[in-house]
Amino acid sequence: MEEEKYSKAVSEIRGVLARFQPGQHIYDEIVGNRDEVLARYRPMCSPEHIPGLTREEFTSFLYFENNHHWSGLHRTGLSAASDMDTLRQALVILLDENRVIPERFEEALRMVKGFGKATATAVLTIAYPDRYGVWNNTSEGALCQVNLWPGFEKSESVGRRYEQGNSLLVRLSADLEIDLYSLMISISVPFWR
Question: For the chain, which end, N or C, has fewer CB atoms within 10 Å of the first or last residue's CB respectively?
Answer without folding.
Answer: C
